[in-house]
Amino acid sequence: MPHKVDLFKTVKDVSVNDPFFSRIQNVVIDQMIPYQKRALNDEIPDVKKSHCIENFRIAAGQSTGEYYGRVFQDSDLAKWIEAVAYSLVVKPDPELEAQADEAIDLIGAAQQEDGYLNTYFTVKEPEHRWQNLADCHEMYCAGHMTEAGVAYYLATGKDKLLKIVCRLCDHIERRFGPGKVYGLPGHEEIELALLRLYRVTGEKKYLDLAKFFIDERGQDPEFFIKEAKNRGWKRVKSDETTPPTYMQNHAPIREMNTVEGHAVRCMYLLTAVADLAAETDDDELFDACKRLWENMTERRMYITAGIGSTAWGEAFTRDFDLPNDTAYAETCAAVGVCFFARQMLEAEPDGRYADVMERALYNGTISGMQLDGTKFFYVNQLEADPHMNADAYYDEEYSAERTGWYDCACCPPNLARLMTGLGGYIWSESGDVLYSHLFVGSTVKAGNGAEIELKGNYPWEGNLTYTVKKGAGKAFKLAIRQPGWCENVKLTVNGAAAEAEEVAGYLVLERDWQPGDVIRYELELTPVRVYADPRVRADAGCVALMRGPVVYAFEGVDNGPDLSCLRLPKDAAVTALPYDANLLEGVVALQMTGKRAVPDGGLYGFDAAQEEDVTLKAVPYYAWANRGSNQMRVWIRE
Amino acid sequence: MPHKVDLFKTVKDVSVNDPFFSRIQNVVIDQMIPYQKRALNDEIPDVKKSHCIENFRIAAGQSTGEYYGRVFQDSDLAKWIEAVAYSLVVKPDPELEAQADEAIDLIGAAQQEDGYLNTYFTVKEPEHRWQNLADCHEMYCAGHMTEAGVAYYLATGKDKLLKIVCRLCDHIERRFGPGKVYGLPGHEEIELALLRLYRVTGEKKYLDLAKFFIDERGQDPEFFIKEAKNRGWKRVKSDETTPPTYMQNHAPIREMNTVEGHAVRCMYLLTAVADLAAETDDDELFDACKRLWENMTERRMYITAGIGSTAWGEAFTRDFDLPNDTAYAETCAAVGVCFFARQMLEAEPDGRYADVMERALYNGTISGMQLDGTKFFYVNQLEADPHMNADAYYDEEYSAERTGWYDCACCPPNLARLMTGLGGYIWSESGDVLYSHLFVGSTVKAGNGAEIELKGNYPWEGNLTYTVKKGAGKAFKLAIRQPGWCENVKLTVNGAAAEAEEVAGYLVLERDWQPGDVIRYELELTPVRVYADPRVRADAGCVALMRGPVVYAFEGVDNGPDLSCLRLPKDAAVTALPYDANLLEGVVALQMTGKRAVPDGGLYGFDAAQEEDVTLKAVPYYAWANRGSNQMRVWIRE
């Protein structure tokens, strides 16, 4: 198993300067992070109340009143701090840093003498601490706080939150583990956080506790049911009927063959499992990761890299069960796909992981935010109709328009931390190889001293330029990903065709790189038709369009009403329009001549409806629903 | 407006002897009715408890214990008695009649001094009578009891239950109406029952009360909300958030343009409205019926004549919103379609009403029962997958296999009364015209003294023979329906081609019919492809097969796994197989050469899956899920 690279190290060592993602990072930093702070502080009118910061004030004795919100409300502040940490690397901001410091002071004041930190139980039910691991998210919140503590320490060098989370994790570690209380987190998250804390502090007890939680998971599928029976109190949403699959406790991880249950839980767990497998050279555990990756990506994932196809339990269902209209595909779950993919890539550089990660980054994650960063999708349907959603015959999270804030506001801060931390996903190093996974404009400082700049206008253009800014004083390998969707690439070094070795989806060039060396890499970007496995009921007979990593969608605003009447004949040419800076903050749209069936007046008749030629236009999926409420579909009849 | 014919009169005057429906009637009479009696008496192990009869015993003081079941549990016994009444006409059975008499005695014993009759409020909340019309179904139960009382009186001549329901309706009429308490039934049903009671008793107060309920409906859309606010108690399922559309109280009926809300409620209401419109020669009201009929049948109805496309509120949604997999299409709602269609037909003989009624009778109603009459569908999906349903990510009523009994057991007794009362749907009379609506083998005694026998093997064969058994002693018209689905018919009288006048979907022959006159009527029955309006998202690009009135379905047991892989090319010939007496109690199946897409291993790829030729077989939709749990779909890709 290859050398393990730490995620955050690359964030610090990568500066992003990318036409596509820098715009989004700026929106996140300038709009979303301040907006979210105001949301957490209940300063935004007409959106769902958060009460998150007020809960901390009450727990800290600085305010009075009742706890309000979900049991995991604390995690929203933790994710906000984590996003701030990464954003301070991208764009230093003393005022924002001061706000984060103030929040950290408040968190410290809310921590209990014994290290315990959770405002729900501190304010509302102190006598019920640690009794309902299934439902009550104490470890989940601790995990997010730990991620924030690690991130803030690495970004700013300030260790106040790191010390707080060490005390918190010590408290947990004193209680749970081999020979102590038997317990498992109902919502996985702390496992991956403990591994990060271990890496920063070097304290093996955090690694051991993460390993305990991972190894014990699924050993007793009845655990949460027994836990529920043993305690004398109940939450309204009882866990007694929750199947063990919901929280991935149905089987030991090493024996799992399919991704099951709540998709976000599953991703957070597998991110930790892949990390632990690499950290401990545990091939059996990594084989489980590979099996589960394969099952997820080849049987249970939307073309947008969205996962979790049903609202019931926000969960995976069955192989090939990927409905488009009732697609849940929670934003957080697609963010989780990036975490898992990144961790797989660190353990084993293979372009397949990067392909999926890229697909998530350009589609199913950022679809969760409005272009201006102030409204969010929780659910990312692949086929939508405002009327259908207005009728509320699905979950209330379904909507054809993004919403200002959610009662369960996990997604916006998750997107914020993903986008601000994006530098950590572009490059990695393993031994003497520097990997270029994503074609996001950036400059990387390699561990060997080399510096390389990547420039381009991806995903709209396929021409990329790598310029060596500093050499390493010796030969090393640069491994550039050849995307799975791209058959034709051109690679030159200093103007001459270069012989690259192909290894697991990467083109590997080795030389003693010198300042001024220029690699030109050209990816053929043409609109392509994509077909789903015909066992996917919802997509049978349909086609989707992609260009590079971007999945396209047909919106009513471009294509008129009743999108089900549209068809894209097999022989119709699909043309990429010139980049339009004024459309949806700058996109390449696709255009084609399709067909529109014209209703002939009868609901059921003996003749198929006549069709007429129409010009169809598709826009990037991530950008849909930015021009008013309208119908949308990714898959169109062929 | 034409002369009004009473429904039940024709049941008494029609004896059914039909290869298709007599088998079903026998199953209902020999299996379902005894089975349902045992279910109502809690004598069937391993199915949901009914407690219905025990509730009556408790209310009558003949037993002790708690009320159990839904608030409308009484109606199950009422519908059972109504089914028994019709069945005694079809097949006299002194033992069954004695059972019904005994049940009626029990009902009488449970009736209160003041005429009130409802076991829920009598046993459980006597102080809350008539305070929650929105939710508590007191008038709904009274309506069903009244239908039973009228039916049992007409079938047996016994008036005990009729007297009970007169006392009950008198009680209601003393309380509600112009100048009395303002009230509306939350679940319509009593309106149509009052009209029947009026017709049997001649008491105009029942007509007036029905008219009051119908005229007042929707005059105050806030009525049920105000009612909820005014009372000091609540049921768990509060009505305060129920939109007025749910119970058709959003607008006065005369102003409605679309069928809305709970589909069964809507059908029961419109059945009464059509009846009242005809009874009172109210053209404005009948115009509303026609508009709503048009909206329902041309925008909101499945090809099976199922209605109510969503489980949320068991309701209509929007025009053309007819998903197949999440289709609710409650059995009771399709039964209600027959009631409404029958009433429209009585008001205005037009083949369009009979076409829909026939489609409901051969498809969306009887799909609700297993061929042996012991298990039932509540929900009638048009696309099913046992895995999908087993995951329970829809309502629990969704199932790929029929169930023994339901917690809410409205459907089985509703089917029973429809099937035993089928004689009332085949023929009608209006002035000097005898209408032959359905091609169900039977002998009718016309009001003018004529007797005509209809024989055939419909729906499997298209050759029908009408034989005059008695003449009327004068000329009269026989109007034989030419189904909307049939372009080619042949009609001969005594061997000679007959000139028939075409009137609103009927071929009208007038003569002084003599005993021995024989009309041969030949309907061309070929398998046909049916297409939905392309605005129906779920059916776009798909085709369904029908032969005569029968809608076909593709089942896994005949066509292998993964039905979404199948396709029926536009040019593939569809052949009707010979009638197979051993298949599904005797059916004509369809066979064709179709295509099966062969998955090539990737979830998403740049090439459409290759296809191979396969022999496909379709069976009548109503008979699906009688050969084990398997996938099914009505609409197949073309």
Structure description:
The structure is a homodimer of 638-residue chains. Helices cover 35% and strands 17% of the residues of chain A. With 638 residues, chain A is an alpha+beta fold. Among the domains of chain A are: 431-523, Immunoglobulin-like, CATH 2.60.40; 527-637, no CATH class. In chain A, α9 runs parallel beside α12 (263-279) and α14 packs antiparallel against α15 (351-364). The longest helix of chain A has 20 residues, at 21-40. The radius of gyration of chain A is 24 Å and the shape is globular. The model of chain A is unreliable at 1-5 (pLDDT under 50). The interface between A and B is large, with 56 and 56 residues. β14 (527-532) of chain A pairs antiparallel with β20 of chain B, so a sheet runs across the interface.
Task: Give a concise summary.
The structure is a homodimer of 638-residue chains. With 638 residues, chain A is an alpha+beta fold.
